[in-house]
Amino acid sequence: MQICRVVGHIWATKKESSLEGMKLMVLRACRDGIVTEEELVAADLVGAGIGEDVIVVSGSTARRAAGSDSLPIDAAIVGIIDTVETEREKKW
Amino acid sequence: MQICRVVGHIWATKKESSLEGMKLMVLRACRDGIVTEEELVAADLVGAGIGEDVIVVSGSTARRAAGSDSLPIDAAIVGIIDTVETEREKKW
Amino acid sequence: MQICRVVGHIWATKKESSLEGMKLMVLRACRDGIVTEEELVAADLVGAGIGEDVIVVSGSTARRAAGSDSLPIDAAIVGIIDTVETEREKKW
Amino acid sequence: MQICRVVGHIWATKKESSLEGMKLMVLRACRDGIVTEEELVAADLVGAGIGEDVIVVSGSTARRAAGSDSLPIDAAIVGIIDTVETEREKKW
Amino acid sequence: MQICRVVGHIWATKKESSLEGMKLMVLRACRDGIVTEEELVAADLVGAGIGEDVIVVSGSTARRAAGSDSLPIDAAIVGIIDTVETEREKKW
Q: Which Pfam families match (chains A, B, C, D, E) (predicted)?
């Protein structure tokens, strides 16, 4: 899994029908609490908002987490992070 | 998923028979709305044109989106982007 | 598989229900015994602690190692490293 | 999929028996028609030769393209490129 | 697949039970015959030794090559390289 920051939202009228109703967010991967250049798009399964730090799964795991192995998604938000504790000091 | 820009089209007469009739596009990954060096080839499932920004899935998700788990593709265009909204200001 | 160092622990109240009870650790990939910048999150299946060096599997392998193909995880700790021996001299 | 240049051929007597008779080629990933440093090995399913530009699939897609889901390969050549047209001028 | 050099061996007493008896090697990816910084761990299926150049498969392909889709491995050595011939001159 990856820790990512939600930085945006995508609208796409012309798309695979099974994506209808799916909330697609723009994310940036985080490293040591810092937002990096690495950008990806993920389906939001837990109601995350712009600015929140989230847990993202990818590949076939994302499809299954979203409820069906035939969904055309390969990344999904599966948790909103409260705290990350690393080596005795709290990061967030 | 990735946000990519369609930059080209591929013709290949000698190929796996199941690729017959499949529209193969050359794409560049985008980051923060800017086209990067990262190049990939994807099957077009929604009729995207050169110059358009699209949503691309990869791996086994691409095969299933294209309709069959035995298709020899590992990336597919599943949406054409209208707008990307990031942190209160519209990017496109 | 990857060799990683366990550097932290994640708490997330709002998450996919099937992640309930799953211990999620923050890891850094190691190279030649040195901790790199590459950060990832993995489910802990063997009771690893912060500071330990571990063996991590990813993708669908991680789901199956954790016991169910529908779990929303794509990385899992499957072993705690005692020693790495490289070319006649012991690294750890 | 990736666009790659075929740069070499591999011989390996001691290998998994199911790789017997499989032609293994050394490839370099191309970007914008230029051969990059990224090197990989793929099974050749269409009779490509050294110096040709090809379409390569990876992961479980490669196994299925080669005809069996249990084959120990994770990359396969599935097409030989005639032309790549990008933004109104022919690259090759 | 990747061409890698075997550079080490891993011992881990505390691990997933199904890894019992599995020989885990430390590898470095090769490029153009030169050992790079990219480090990974793979199960050895063909009896490779430290210093040998090998063919490595990853992902679900590795599990199946090792004999069972539920094994907690995502990389496996499936061949020991005799020669790599690139563009009319022998590399090894």
A: EutN_CcmL
